[in-house]
Amino acid sequence: MSEHHLRFSLNGVEREAKVPADRSLVELLRDDLGLTGTKEGCGIGVCGACSVLIDGQLLSGCLIPAVYVDGHEITTIEGLAPDVDHLTALQEAFIRHGGFQCGACTPGQIIAATALLEEYPHPNAVEIKQWMMGNLCRCTGYYKIIDSILAAAGTDSWGRVGEG
Amino acid sequence: MSSFDYHAPVSLPEVVELLQSYGSDAHLMAGGTLMMLMLKNGLMQPAHIVSLRHIRDLEGIRPTTNGGLEIRALATHRQAEMSEDVRAYCPALAETFARVATIRIRNQGTVGGNLAHADPAQDPPAMFLALGAEVAVTGPEGDRTISIDDLFIDYLETSLRDAEVITAVRLPPLHPGTQATYLKFVPRTADDYATVSIAAVLRLGAANTCEDLRIGLGSLGPVPLRGRSVEDALRGQELTPARIREAAALVRSDVDPLADGRGSVRYKREMAFVWTERVIQGLVVGATDRRSRPHESRTAHSETRYDPMVGEVRLEGGDPIVVRRQMTSSRSTNTVVGKRTPPSGGVMYVTGRAVFGIDFELPGMLRGKIVRSTVPHARIVAIDTADATSLPGVMAVITGRDSPHGLTGARLKDEPIFAGDRVRYVGEPVCAIAAVDERTAAAAAQLVRIEYEDLIPVFEASEALGRTAPLLHENLGSYTFRPYDCHPVPGTNIASHIKIRKGDVTAGFRAADVIVEETYRTQATHAMYIEPHASVAQWDASGKVSIWTNTQAPFIVRSGVATALGIPVSRVRVIPLLVGGGFGGKAQLKLEGVCALLARAAGRPVGIRLDRAEEFTGTSVSPPFTIRIKTGARNDGTFLACEADLVIDNGAYSEAVDGVCWEATIGAAGPYSIPHQKIDGRLVYTNKLPTGPLRGFGWPQITWALEQNVDAIAVRLGIDPLEIRLRNAFEEDGSISSTGALMHAVGLKASLRAAADAIGWSSRERRPNHGFGIAALTKLSVPFIPSSSIIKINEDGRVQLISGATDIGQGSNLTMAQIAAEEIGVELDQIDVVVADTDTAPYDGGAISSRLTFFLGNAVRAAAADARSQLLATAAEMLEVASDDLDVHGGRASVIGVPDRSLAFREIVLYSHMRGGGPIIGRGSYVDRDVVPMDPQTGQSSRAATDFTYGAQAVEIEVDPRTGQVTILRVVSAHDCGFAINPLAVEGQIEGGLSMGLGFALMEEVLSEDGRVLNPSMGEYKIPTIADMPPLTSIIVEGFPHPDGPFGAKGVGEASIIGIAAAIGNALSDATGRRFTELPLSPERVLTVINGVQLDAVADP
What we know:
The complex is a heterodimer.
Chain A: E1 3-10, E2 13-20, H1 25-32, E3 51-54, E4 57-60, E5 73-75, H2 89-96, H3 106-119, H4 125-132, H5 143-153
Parallel strand pairs in A: 1-5
Antiparallel strand pairs in A: 1-2, 3-4, 3-5
Chain B: E1 5-7, H1 12-22, E2 26-29, H2 33-40, E3 48-51, E4 61-63, E5 69-72, H3 77-82, H4 84-89, H5 91-98, H6 103-108, H7 111-117, H8 124-131, E6 134-139, E7 142-147, H9 148-151, E8 152-154, E9 157-158, E10 165-171, E11 178-185, E12 196-204, E13 210-218, E14 225-226, H10 228-234, H11 241-248, H12 251-254, H13 265-285, H14 300-305, E15 322-327, H15 347-350, E16 366-372, E17 378-384, H16 386-390, E18 394-399, E19 422-423, E20 429-435, H17 438-447, E21 449-454, H18 461-464, E22 494-502, H19 505-511, E23 514-521, E24 534-539, E25 545-549, H20 554-565, E26 572-576, H21 592-602, E27 606-609, H22 612-618, E28 625-633, E29 639-651, H23 657-667, E30 676-685, H24 699-717, H25 721-728, H26 748-759, E31 770-780, E32 787-793, E33 799-803, H27 812-824, E34 831-835, H28 852-879, E35 886-889, E36 892-895, E37 898-904, H29 905-914, E38 921-926, E39 948-959, E40 966-978, H30 983-1002, E41 1008-1009, E42 1012-1013, E43 1032-1038, H31 1055-1058, H32 1060-1072, H33 1083-1091
Parallel strand pairs in B: 1-3, 2-3, 15-43, 16-27, 25-26, 29-30, 33-34, 40-43
Antiparallel strand pairs in B: 4-5, 5-10, 6-7, 6-10, 8-9, 11-12, 12-13, 13-14, 16-20, 17-19, 17-21, 18-20, 22-30, 23-28, 24-25, 24-27, 28-29, 31-39, 32-33, 32-38, 35-36, 36-37, 39-40, 41-42
Helix pairs in contact in B: 10-11, 11-13, 20-21, 23-24, 24-32, 27-28, 28-29, 30-32
């Protein structure tokens, strides 16, 4: 097994790591770097619990070889807010609107929704459903996740600003 | 994963050179999605992986000079989906890319990698076939192009030669007037692989003449296929509806599908025909012109994803996604309970700081791996662990032979931690390994050799009941069990037989004007929490074991470990970690005993976490039911008699399903007053994965049967289904239950009326293939499981609420804090909730059976009252007044009417510490003191259980008569929860249970064959996604407070999973005139019922 020396930015901090070729990104994050906010739920890219942003793009930590992040910027759930007193609008909304119950899928949901609002700041409910389709939740029935995203975006179900 | 070297060349010649030098030991990787999957599941074991990631030359999408399009191999699906060039070339191609999996996969997966993988279930290949693409490749002999028609030669095989690399896909210019479409039929969930997919590119001439037609077919054979028979039959022809249908039927001979969880060969063949016809028809009439649909044109984003033909997202114009109502009868004076309250401890969850079971580690911890039985029923002849033991890094290997033999279970104790001399299901733990890391442990597990002597297995409960069936538990008669709700029958495979005998059922049927009898079946489902099981164990020098685990029920785990290991419970300390979803699936002993034994053998802490595949083979599923139910009624709709026979497939061990058997048997008569009843519930061992508790605990299954039988009677008598329910439903007070209890505070009729009103029951319209359904529901919380709580007032005046009950997402911590705050009279933010370990917490039965709000809520209220009274007694002493003269306001005890004579809690507590009675510690418990055990022969008792919930669910549906796909247009879920202590959390329970209920009704099924699970992954076992959720009206029905509940509250955690399948079944019956008896209501099953068994004779719409 070849070993690889990686340099990357993790939540704004330059990091280095040495990994075997078969390491996945989620293993690098959780087992090597101790960032356990990113979860592994299914291991096959279906559930979305391992959602991370690489150079701002939404990806599955369980399907990305760790060697792929060499030279790139990774954002995980731990890197969204500077500290617990300054949560992002999405993080606040997920708390206020019942957007999580057990919380296991929540880091992935919030990462995915962060990418959504970056690309579509005022989504309607259909757009939210389409974008978030790959983030499974077994607790909420999803309605309050939609509520949370709409609230963070300041839109109603039809994507109208300021009426939600 | 196998061991490999990773290479990242920066030019194509280098890539080719590497491929040449390593030959078949090397494999290319582009985006990595498919390769990572192949590597993880061992389908591919290359020694070298050559990444294309740094080949800049392979990026980009550009129009070609001849008006065609070139997509370079490393372009991602997402880039292709969003590309203006792709859209300008052919909007349907962009839409095809938009239909690939989910956005994360589209961001990673590449167009070239997708083609090279040659998976027939992928989306783009079918469209490339229809568009007549060419694939550009480079290799040792230079560049060449391959027609897409020649690329795919077998399952996962292409015609690429050794060391060749796909560099681009080239698409020819399209003639003006060419129309294209891509149809992906995904009836299970929006993120599923296609059941079938059809791409069509059509050029129409004058008078609808087909000048050219190319059809690509996905998921319909070992490779992506062309629909050549259809193309040939239509080319040059005028495209009339009749001719299109005739030609589309020919597609059946073009395809060669594989059966899987999405359908049989016959079904897929039929769907190929139906959708080919519809797609061509749609192209001809322009019905698929998405630009004409106003709600899709807002942004390119929504345009590309919404597909009304597939019904992927049904946001009807103007219909909100969710409406929430609360029907409250009176204004309360409460200030904390009853208020919508978000969790104060939410920050750790949204910032990734919450530590779940899978996140927990101890210093020096080893990783464990369980070696599981590969056969369903066998004697273990020998276990050879020598090779595993000698693998470097392995620190301990244990088997059933060197382990204690204590049996565990919730009621009937029948399950060992390790199989001793005999295995009873595929997946049963036989041996376990502790090693320095997971990979070493897994490698060692491969080296254990187990020799079996096969025994005759039995997989069907009905067969296991036969006289000649092999006995799974010969020692059943010597097992211990809880006689209150479990009655094993030694000498048989019956783990429990529960009986209800009431009135004279024969006389009841004799007096009936109408009798309806039917047999219903349900399937095995999985709780499918997002976080897998994980446990860690460590022994201390005194011989005590500490276990950190993501359990719903720490005290159940404690007693289970103690029993299994043969040690006192005080030698076991269970520390609950955060639970990433439980739903019943994390309520029983799973990994804890194995971890404890491994840790003892290794002398170091050992942790085990399951991966998702092991979740399907090593945990538990819900029990499949076969329910024969017979109901008799008078002409006016009054129910007279109910006879039911429940045969419940237990799997190899009982876990808590003996309780399921008890509850479902009690539930078979429903929330209806029926004078004559004879009900038998039998729980039967089979050589399958043990079944276990799962949200609903038997009530969704029994309700699926009985609530459809209620509709069947209504139809026979010509009585409205709502009316017949209202006529027989429990009254608010005074009805007698199936077990003979007098019922109180029943909000059933109010729930039925609320659900009916919200769905528009009385004004419902009649349309073909469209129906309405309603179902009543009830459930009880299991009795004789106490809860208790301690409330300390700390020296800073804050209130510390201690219990051993875990908050698994249902919000119990907050609910308990609200109850304590209300009772003591302080602000909510003055309460700190502590979920303590089993050494320090008072006993609690666990976060199961919708019980915490009622049971623990009562305990907390009592503890809070106790703490308050101690506090006021001390304050009275300090202020030299009587306790009765004091009240609590704003965290202070003050003399009533004299607000400036008051003391802060802090002052009172310090005084109490120094000069009063010591620390202020309130205690409270709730015990089912007045529950009376049922008579084992008749099931009668004046009070078999304490806490009942009621509700009603209604749906409006549409069914596609040619595909069997059921679309839920609207759902209403109305629930009498007595009093909603936190409406936000109650809504969350209703909405979450509903999604599980929809999964149970429509798609979820753990498939097995000869005791082996066939679909052990989240890719094949589908649960609803956000895009599958229909518009919902949820209604909290108040006004029927439980006389014994805290502030009148009843449990509501499981209610909304219970009635939804039956409501959908009734609506389907309403739409089709047929009765649907088996779950899940997969499109194929629905179609089969609509048409009889002959799929070939599908009726025209």
